Amino acid sequence: MLTRMTAPVRRRMVWLLAGNMGLLLLILACLLPGDTVPGAVSRLGTVLVDTPRNIAPEMLAAIGLTAIIWTGAIDLSIGSVMAVGGAVFAMGYSHGAPPLVCFGGCLLAAGGLVAGNGLLARWLGIPALIVTLAGLAAYRGLALVLVNVGVPGFDGNLTVPEEIFRVPGRDWAVWFLLFAVGGAVWCELFGRLPRLWLAHGSSPAACRLHGLDLSRLAVSAFLFGGFYLGLGATLYVSNQQTIDPARMALGFELSVIAAVVLGGTNIFGGEGSFLGTLLGVLFLYLARQALIYAFDDPHARQAVEGALILGVIGFDCVLHRAAHRMEELK
Asked: Is the residue at 224 inside a domain?
C-alpha cells in the first residue's frame, strides 16, 4: 500500500502518526494534575477504550467520502442524509417496527440518498458539488417532513428508551468498525476500483483514452460511499437516545471532510489513502479530547481545533511545494 501512495500522502501519514502520539501524551499531561501517575494512565486507558465506539460513525462516513473525493467529486449533504436516516428510524420505531427493520430502514435511506446523488449528477450532467449542495438543505427538510407526517404526535424530538434499539451504536460499533475498515483496506490493497477512482480524479483524459466510462466510475464511488455512510448513519442514530432531525448531525459533513483532507486525500481527487483517512479521523478525535481537558470555553476549543487543522495541512503543503520546486530544478 505504501508503495502506491504519493510522497505527500506518505509524509502526511508520518505527521499524523507523530501527531496522534503527541496528542496522547498531551491528554496524559492534562490528566496528571490532581491525580497520581497510575490514576492518570488508567483514565487515559478509558479514553482509548471508548475511542472506537465514539469515532465509528465519523470513520465509516469518512471512508465512504474518501472514495467519492478520489474521483474528483464530493458529497456535502451527508449530515442531512444522516438526519433522513434518523427520521426513517423514528418512523419505524413509532409504528412498532422491530429493531432490525428500524436499523435496515436507516441504512437504506441514508445509503440510498448518497448513491442517488451520484446517479442524479450523472443523469443531469452537472457536478456532484451542485447536486449535494442542494441536497444539504433539501434532505434536512425531507427529514422534518417525514417525522411530522409519519410519527404520530411528533413534538420536535422522539425518545427511544429501549436499550435494544441502541445495540449497534453502543455494543457492536467496534465490530462494525473493524470489519468495515478491514474491508476498505483490503479493497485498496487488492481491488481494482480504488485504483480506477484515483485514476479518474488524477487524469480523466487518460481514463477516456483507455476506454473507461467516467460516469460509471463516479457512480460506483457513490455506491461505495453510500454503503459506508449508511452503516455510519445506523451506528450514529442507534447511539442516540433522543432523535431530533432538525439538529441531528449538524456540521457532521465539515468534520468528515476535514478528516479526509487531513488524512492526505487531495480535495480535487486523484490522491489519498483509506489508512490516511483513518489517521485523520483519529487525530481530530484526540485533538478534541485534548482540548476538552485544556480549555473550559467551547468556543476556544473550536477555534484552536480549526487552527490546528490549518497548521498541520498548511505545513505539509509548504513541504509539498518545496519538494515540487526541487523536482522542477532537476
From this structure: yes
**Chain CA centroid to CA 276, Å:** 12
Q: Would you state the torsion angle of the CA atoms of residues 201, 205, 206, 207, taken in this order, to the nearest 10 degrees?
A: 60
* Residue/partner pairs of 130-139 with CB below 8 Å, 24 or more apart: 132/74, 132/75, 132/76, 132/77, 133/76, 133/77, 135/76, 135/77, 135/80, 135/81, 136/76, 136/77, 136/79, 136/80, 136/253, 137/80, 138/77, 138/80, 139/77, 139/80, 139/81, 139/83, 139/84, 139/113
Q: E strands of the chain, at which residues?
A: 158-159, 242-243
pTM above 0.85, yes or no: yes
Q: What's the number of CA atoms in the CB half-sphere (13 Å) around residue 116?
A: 12
Residue 122 structural domain? 55-250
d(CA 57, CA 47) in angstroms, rounded, equals: 17
What distance separates the 2 farthest-apart alpha carbons in the chain? 71
Q: What's the pLDDT tens digit per position in 33-81?
A: 877 888 888 888 988 889 999 999 999 999 999 999 999 999 999 999 9
DSSP H or E run through 293: helix 274-294
Work out how many domains the chain is built from and give that number: 1
Does residue 131 lie in a domain region? Answer: yes
Question: How many Å apart are CA 72 and CA 197, to the nearest integer?
Answer: 9
Site of grid cell 498531551: 26
CA distances from 105 to 21, 91, 151, 325 (A): 39, 9, 15, 52
